[in-house]
Amino acid sequence: MTHEARLILACAREAGNTAASHLVGRALQEPIDWELVVRLASPHRMKPFLHRHLSPHAGAVPPSVLDHLAASYRDTASRNLAVLVALVRLTHSLREAGIRAITFKGPLTAHMAYGDLGLRQSTDLDILVPERDFSRAGRTLQDRGLTPLPPLSPRQLAALRRYRNAWVFGSEGGSFHVDLHWRLLADQLQLLPDERGMWDRAVSANLAGYRFETLGPPDLLLYFCARAAVDSWRAVFRIADISAAARELSPDDWHLVMEHAVKAGKSRMVLIGVGLAHELLDAAIPEQLLRASRGITPVARRIAAARDEILRPECEIPGIVRRDLRLLGALDSLPAHVHFFTSLPFSPGPRDIALVDLPVRTAFLYRGIRVVRVTLKLFLMTMRAVVRAVRRVRDVTRFEDSKDQRPARP
Q: How many helices (H) and strands (E) in the chain?
């Protein structure tokens, strides 16, 4: 692992942690390529974290880098504050309509997990409502000026509810999006076989003088583990989220987490997430789970691979096929594997459903539309890869030919 990667991981740890401060100081004693640090930190949403941890070491960091990181922190705080205002407005409207809403991610996570609106960069808002109230919640958001993306008829919306877990709404001007959930996670990633208990475990959070309802600690950790898996365990901010959520869990909470994960057939997904949080950020994880993460060979291999790949400059982002194969390795049993691969290609998304307004009785045909679109997408991806390979071979051949045609030196 490079010095730059070690520095970023040290800055991803909890603020005020003595070990983190020591690691940052030790990393700064090594030669650092600051341009590489900033370039690596950006896709991992780590620049605000770097600002927090490097500010006390101003003498060891170039002023231009400190200014850049400070600007990123201010931009994040400003955006999160604007999104928070919108969130207050929307949750208040839902509350007035008699709709219970759980808010998670976004500025609420920045406040609850890190105690600072400027630390966690967020791109959208996530609101979970009971499925029975979903249609009314959608109309409420539209009354507040949000636009569904894409617009769907009642029949199309019924199909979306059958196959997916959320509908996206855009704000005027596109400044933010709202993911309106009726289920926390898509079926392929579901770590909560029965979400009814999740509503009972919801907790209150006060932010900016307003009371929000949000996920309880066990459910938030399960959600973060699933999201880290979607990113192939390669995004540092996802691992930092798991580490932050783990700090809030009691022994009973950990038992509940693993009980749900085992029932869902995805305990490996949780073990990989918490194992990486411990390996990279020294997260406080129960020893029993750490032993399990080391003792299950596919889990240990995935943790080792992710640890070696994370923050490696030359490492490519895995494509959709390779990502899904990695997700497959996070499932516990053959039935879970079969369910994953039979449901994933056949679960139509909003764009598939928006193509045609089918009657409810023929909504199953959306699965066929999905298969056609996925097949076409994979075909185009393959053809692009072939074209790139042919061009590389042609360029190498031309280079070799040009060397052969050079006149020999006397």
A: 19, 7
